[in-house]
Write a structure and sequence with these properties.
311 residues; alpha/beta; 5-stranded mixed β-sheet; 5 strands; 20% helix; globular
Length: 311
């Protein structure tokens, strides 16, 4: 299914929504660099965003966990979690632009470096969540001027062309494409289980203005990439299935009926289930100031998905 979108209420964010989901089994002029921006207070804002899906309904995960078959194999049955920070993921950054200026999407190296710091801080648990086994190492940056690719839409011919021309590495290489996305999206991703059938589509696509200090406030602290990489490593949204279905296949993420659209702290949409809505989780739809955590269960699931599909 196509990613769902919702209109922004702030003029600055007109046409933007947030991130994308892919099934594990489906092909699914700013300040100078000062590092990753400081976290702001998590409070309601007059903006609304949806972080959508890649050929799947963003609110429903598969009824059978795509990791179930792997867990039944000898490798899966004997799986032991890797140590925090022990898996180094090579990252290839593909900057797609319509001209040489930053306003045309030709993002400077400092923004790429800041985005890498956000990824590493997020996945190491330095922002407040559980540490994961993953660290990210920038291995290449290329820049392509192509006005058609620059405004690529989800699932479009332009997306396929850009990825076919630019993608490098194997299932272990994280390819990140930056552009001025069509369809009102902040980004989308493929899931690890799709690599075998569709290696040419593998990777993460993000709106360049969602990068640190990119200007898509309140979605410009770099958490679009963090959320999408979570999908690339096998995570579903925290609100998958609402209060009564199988959820996101992670035991320690509280049930959530609806995605958090800049919702204040204390929201509880599944009052008969334990825990408040996990609006601080990177896999919700909260704006960036709210998002700062993966759970220990999410760390294990990403580790399992890596072993099953990317190692």
């Amino acid at each position: 299914m196509r990613p769902r979108t919702r209109p922004m209420l702030r003029p600055l964010l007109a046409g933007l929504t947030a991130l994308a989901l892919a099934s594990l089994a489906a092909p699914s002029a700013l300040a100078s660099p000062l590092g990753a921006p400081a976290r702001r207070d998590c409070a309601p804002v007059a903006a609304d965003a949806a972080r959508g899906g890649y050929r799947h309904d963003a609110h429903v995960a598969p009824s059978v966990d795509p990791l179930a078959a792997w867990r039944a194999t000898p490798e899966g049955a004997s799986f032991e979690a890797d140590a925090a920070g022990s898996i180094v993921v090579p990252v290839a950054f593909h900057v797609i632009n319509r001209g040489t200026s930053k306003a045309d999407g030709n993002v400077p190296q400092w923004m790429i470096d800041a985005q890498m710091r956000v990824l590493n801080d997020s996945f190491a648990g330095r922002t407040g969540g559980a540490p994961t086994p993953f660290t990210f190492e920038l291995v290449s940056v290329d820049r392509t001027t192509n006005p058609d690719w620059y405004t690529m839409g989800y699932g479009s011919r332009e997306e396929r062309e850009a990825k076919s021309a630019l993608r490098v590495g194997g299932p272990e290489t994280l390819n990140i494409y930056t552009a001025d996305l069509g369809g009102g999206l902040l980004g989308w991703a493929t899931f690890p289980g799709s690599y075998a059938q569709h290696p040419e589509l593998d990777g993460v696509v993000i709106l360049w203005r969602s990068m640190p200090r990119g200007g898509a406030d309140p979605y410009d602290e770099g958490d679009t990439a963090t959320h999408e990489v979570g999908h690339w490593l096998g995570l579903y949204h925290t609100f998958q299935g609402g209060c009564s279905r199988w959820g996101d296949y992670v035991e320690d993420t509280p049930a959530e009926k609806y995605p958090a659209f800049g919702r204040p702290v204390g929201s509880d949409t599944c009052i008969r289930k334990p825990g408040l809505d996990p609006i601080e989780n990177f896999m919700d739809y909260s704006y960036d100031a709210c998002m700062h955590a993966f759970t220990a269960g999410q760390s294990v699931r990403m580790n399992e998905a890596w072993a099953a599909f990317r190692a």
